Every structure is written in C-alpha cells, then in structure tokens.
Amino acid sequence: MKVFGVTGWKNAGKTGLVERLVTEITARGFSVSTVKHAHHSFDVDQPGRDSHRHREAGAQEVMLSSGARWALMHELRGAEELSLGDLLARLSPVDLVLIEGFKREGHPKIEAWRAETGHPLIAPGDATIRALAADTPPETDRPVFDLNDTAAIADFILSEVEL
To answer: Over the stretch 131-153, which tens digit does the pLDDT of each residue have?
Structure first.
C-alpha cells in the first residue's frame, strides 16, 4: 500500500482536504483508506448502546456488524498507543492510505496551512513535508498549491507515490 499524509496545525484545513482528496482520488479509480490521529480521548460509540455497554463492562474488543458495514473497536486499557505501522498493518489492502495527523512519523506529507491561524509553517523543520497546500502562498522552498485546488494536489500526491 502507498501512504501519504496531510499534516498541519489545528484549523488549517486538514480534514476538508483529506475529504476532498478521497473523493477526487476514488473518482479516478483508485481505492483509498484513511487513518486519522486524534490527540484526545475520543469515542465512536454512544452511551446506552449495546456496544458501549460491552466496552464499559470490560471487553477488550467489540465488533459491530450489519449488512452495510462492520466496525471493530479496541480498548487499549492502559497499553501504549499503537504505532502508525501497527495501525497500517490492520488495514485491508488498498491503493493509497491517506493519513491525517501523525506529524512526527516518517511518511511523506503535504502541509495544510492557513495564514489566518497565525501558526508557523511546520515544513522548514521537517523534510518529510514534500509540499504545502495553503490559502496564501508562504515563503518556502517546497511546491505550494492552493488549498482548494484538490485536483492539482491529488495529481502531486499520486505522482509522489507513483500511482
């Protein structure tokens, strides 16, 4: 599987960019999966639902299945967070995995950046960032794409991963 990331500070447009990239790249006939890193405790389950009750009772894993989808929730219960490599190993094979977040991992990335947030660029100190997707062109030695030019960004990513 080919892997490419979208990174950046909070409110830089990462999630919207990943969403548009998935739509664009799958429309071109490629299979795509995503991995999103959350920096806080999150829950995909809802209190009161059977699956939530199973987890609260102490189940290590809870699998839900229907005719439309299946989902597996795994509780770490104090164990260390899995590495990106371990997470990728659990995915079914696809042409491309888009990774949102995971700033410190060594995979190639594009940085989403919005001037209005006031955050500095990550790219100057990170060689894994191959290009920027920005609302205003910043000073950089990397290629810069308009944050909303999804087709051009997709072209760049697919070229980088040789798809």
So the answer is: 999 999 999 999 999 999 999 99
* Domain 2-42+81-160, classified CATH 3.30.450.40, yes or no: no
Q: Where are the domains of the chain?
A: 2-42+81-160
> CA dist 72 to 17, 44, 60, 91, Å?
26, 10, 10, 11
pTM for the whole structure: 0.90
Token couple for 101:
């977040």
Is residue 107 within 8 A of residue 87, CB to CB? The reply is: no
Strand partners, 134: 113, 146
Give the whole-angstrom CA distance, residue 65 versus residue 86: 23
- Say which residue the tokens 């190639």 belong to: 108
